């Protein structure tokens, strides 16, 4: 089953809580957003290969609190040896996850620096993906970048590498967040021309705090258009940033829907309100259910229609 043209599919990303207060906030976020019957809630993993146990503990907690909730765990290849990383993937599956988000991870010294793999670990993300495919029944999502990330070797090389990841067994591509939809459309076009027909799901970041998101965007290579920055400067003076954030994010999703996008992945930062408002604006309501199907929705851009 795929989402209908009028009902997009959604998924939500959260991160493991590091305190009791954070755990309460995370629980409230998942409880509120689960009313929209997400295809899955994904739990992040330390980009440096750490926090593996926290990811697993969070997945287990979510499974206990809501057995019907679809779950995905993030995992980086630099978390240990080949055996250790694959054991973590198996642990995710055993705790009820149906998806894994397979990632390389960051350099020890931050983005843009030379990446060092574990001496007994996987040497590339395609190798990592192929091993997960052989060892588990998890569905595999990988990252895609509409805009050059800090370690980019150029657009052609990046698309070629993404093709290697999909050829290795990736079931879906979830993009880095972006604020200029034209960047996403160009990315999709490059992928399709390169023979990548894997479903591409846009990553959406509601702007909960403009200054923090702007700083994070600079580190990730995601550009915030000047018109959006100007609008936030004016809205801040009027105390109307929340209303503007909701309008911008809902407008971005509306434009994507008009171009055929039928699935959205929201980076919630463990805060539900803005994402909840955008889901309502998309026409989702708290009675919607897709029956728990694994498929994340239908995506159609540039005459390429696939199911996720």
Description:
- By secondary structure, the protein is an alpha/beta fold.
- It has a single domain, classed as TIM Barrel (Alpha-Beta Barrel).
- The protein is built from ten helices and ten strands.
- The strands form two sheets. Strands 1-2-3-4-5-6-7-8 form an eight-stranded parallel β-barrel, surrounded by five helices. It has a two-stranded antiparallel ribbon with strand order 9-10.
- α3 links the parallel β3 and β4.
Structure class: alpha/beta
Strand order of the largest sheet: 1-2-3-4-5-6-7-8
Low-confidence stretches: 290-308
- Describe the sheet with the most strands: 8 strands, parallel, barrel
Total strands: the figure is 10
Q: If you compute it from the alpha carbons, what radius of gyration comes out, rounded to the nearest whole angstrom?
A: 18 Å
Task: Give a short summary of the structure.
This protein has helices at 20-33, 52-65, 82-94, 125-135, 155-167, 181-193, 210-220, 226-238, 241-258, 273-281, and strands at 9-14, 41-43, 71-76, 99-103, 139-144, 172-177, 200-204, 263-267, 298-301, 304-307. It has an eight-stranded parallel beta barrel, surrounded by five helices. It is built from ten helices and ten strands.
